Amino acid sequence: MQVDFLIVGQGLAGSLLAKELLRRGRTVHVVDDCWKSSSSQVAAGLMTPLTGRRFTLTKDYPELFASAKKRLTELGVFRPIEVYRMFVDEEQRAKGLKRTECKSCQPFIARVTSARGELDAGVADEFGGALMNGAWVDLPKLMSDVRAELVAAGSLTEASFDPADAVVTADGVTWRTIRAGAIIYCDGYKSALRGPFKYLPWQPAKGEALTLRSDVTDKPFILNREGWALPLGQGVWRTGTNWQWDQLDEAPTEPQKEKLIRRFRSYFGQEVQVDVTAHVAGVRPCTSDNHPFMGTHPTQPRTHLFGGLGPRGTVWAPLMADEMADYLCAGKALRKECDLARFPAA
Questions:
Q1: Which domains does the chain have, with CATH numbers?
Q2: Residues with Cβ within 8 Å of residue 109, at least 6 apart in sequence
Q3: Which of its termini does the chain have fewer beta carbons within 10 Å around, N or C?
Q4: Tens of pLDDT along 9-66?
Q5: Residue 207 and residue 310 in contact, taking contact as beta carbons nearer than 8 Å
Q6: How much is the mean pLDDT over the chain?
Q7: Which residues have C-beta within 8 Å of that of residue 139, sequence separation ≥ 6?
Q8: What pTM was estimated for this model as a whole?
């Protein structure tokens, strides 16, 4: 089989890039291990405007959010919802109030509360919080829909990928029976462990998440405080997450399960019963400067990378997939802060 691009990985990055290349009339073949190593299977797909201890707006967030909303709405997976960020102390509340004076932040802040129960009597928000205009993305549906399209077109191989099995020459790439003009790695943190892009300053981090049933009243917003709880309706919630810089694998752990349950219960002012129905783990492909890795290997012109989307992948991915496809198909320059050329090979 001859195609324009061989894509390694069908998580969020690989799915959206495949769609963009197909929209431009290019042919693709995707190899994926049934999402066994995809952090997208674990991610909540949240779009939270102001994040971190300092309650800051991600650089270029308005542009990224607008692009993501447009593209993901077209794909039927964009779910607008408010996010209630509960402050951990008075210092953080002061930062939240200060953000309301920032013009770039104002469109994303619906309300700031100052006392417990001001927004919802059932929420344990001793220092108040900020109600933000956010969203979540139905990542399982997105990847399942794209997978079905690829399977129907005969453009997917379910297999583990070893870079050593790909033969890269000046004329193209061969893997098994697939011949491609180029190969694009979209395999998340796996590129930090092996393959041609191992030299980059990756900082992968493991995270875990739970799906549970609870007797707590459903909320019309996502709860956020040193973690998150996403209401899915009828007493079902998804909650996470943690950051672990060692033991980089996809194995759920009992200590983190108990930690996530305690944190979920801490969001509410009454005793909460929970029944865990699913527990998953994955590794985020984070980078040293919190920007994606996009571009071409410095010594292998047929070898490309689209990854490193990290914890804000749902915001970054739609616009970056569009820009990466323009780069691959039309030679359009990548934005410098994302071009992997900013890190010369050792």
A1: 2-41+140-202+288-342 (3.50.50.60), 78-135 (no CATH), 205-284 (3.30.9.10)
A2: 49, 50, 99, 100, 130, 131, 132, 133
A3: C
A4: 999 999 999 999 999 999 999 999 986 656 776 777 999 998 877 788 888 899 999 9
A5: no
A6: 93
A7: 12, 40, 41, 43, 45, 77, 314
A8: 0.94
Distance CA 190, CA 259 (A): 27
Task: Answer yes or no: are the C-beta atoms of 309 and 292 closer than 8 Å.
Answer: yes
8 Å CB contact between 98 and 244: no
- Cβ neighbours around 171 below 10 Å, total: 9
* Encoded tokens for 258: 């108990």
Q: How far is the C-alpha of 43 from the C-alpha of 45, rounded, in Å?
A: 5
The per-residue pLDDT for range 9-20, each reduced to its tens digit, is 999 999 999 999
**Which amino acid makes up residue 282?**
G
Give burial (CB, 10 Å; 0-12/13-18/19+) of 145: middle
3-state SS track over the chain: CEEEEEEECCCHHHHHHHHHHHHCCCCEEEEECCCCCCHHHCCCCEECCEECCCCEECCCHHHHHHHHHHHHHHCCCEEEEEEEEECCCHHHHHHHHHHCCCCCCHHHEEEECCCCCCCCCCECCCCCEEEEEEEEECHHHHHHHHHHHHHHCCCEEECCCCHHHCEECCCCEEECCEEEEEEEECCCCHHHHCCCCCCCCECCEEEEEEEEEECCCCCCEEEECCCEEEEEECCEEEEECCCECCCCCCCCCHHHHHHHHHHHHHCECCCCCEEEEEEEEEEECCECCCCCEEEECCCCCCEEEEECCHHHHHHHHHHHHHHHHHHHHHCCCCCCCCEHHHCCCC
Q: pLDDT tens for residues 231-289? A: 999 999 999 988 888 888 889 999 999 999 999 999 998 999 999 999 999 999 999 99
Residue 267 and residue 274 in contact, taking contact as beta carbons nearer than 8 Å: no
